[in-house]
Amino acid sequence: MSNKPVTENLKKTLADTYSLLTKTQNYHWNVEGANFSSLHTLFEGQYTELFAAVDVIAERIRALGEKAPGSASEFKKWSSMSEGSSSFSSDRMLQDLHDSNMIVLATIKKALAAAEKAGDASTADLMTQRISAHEKAAWMLRSSLPSGSKLKLAV
């Protein structure tokens, strides 16, 4: 039942999503500054949503007959995400999370294309849902940055 292009793209999506989850939780714990309370809450909402998403993505990989990556070394192998730093300013955290959501969006769009090409409607539907979630997250992060910040919009 496995389709290699679909499952390989799902593994990349899982790894990028998990890496973003870890980065978001790091920033939730370590954000400081005048906007601490609102950013602490924003980051918590985002990492909670990502935590649920990694389970659904991993289970889709399993449903397609493959093993899901599940260790730090496997995630590092599959992910295109950079690590964040707890020493970043709150604005840099926002910028980094926005840019990271854009990376995940690009990964998901490749997975969507692979699923559509394979006629895998379930995976395509899941990826479409993930696109909406990351577009919303990017918007929230972008809207929390100071006016004048130049960021790429989700397309």
Describe the protein's architecture and organization.
The chain is mainly alpha-helical and 155 residues long. It has one domain (4-144): Ferritin (Up-down Bundle), CATH 1.20.1260.10. It has helices at 4-30, 36-63, 72-78, 90-118, 121-144. The radius of gyration is 16 Å and the shape is elongated.
Topology:
Blueprint: H1 4-30, H2 36-63, H3 72-78, H4 90-118, H5 121-144
The N- and C-terminal alpha carbons lie at a distance of 32 Å
**CATH domain fold name:** Ferritin
Indicate the CATH architecture.
Up-down Bundle
Round the Cα radius of gyration to an integer and report it: 16 Å
Fourth-level CATH superfamily: Ferritin, core subunit, four-helix bundle
> What is the mean pLDDT?
94
Q: How many domain modules? A: 1
Shape assignment:
elongated
CATH uppermost class: Mainly Alpha
- Which structural class do the helices and strands define? mainly alpha
Strands, count: 0
Order of helices and strands: HHHHH
Poorly predicted spans? none
Major β-sheet profile: none
User: So what's the oligomer here?
Assistant: single chain
Report the sheet-strand fraction: under 5%
Discrete helix count: 5
Percent helix range:
over 70%
Brief overview:
This protein is mainly α and 155 residues long. It has helices spanning 4-30, 36-63, 72-78, 90-118, 121-144. The protein has a single domain (4-144), classed as Ferritin (Up-down Bundle).
Which properties best describe this structure?
155 residues, mainly alpha, Ferritin, 74% helix, elongated
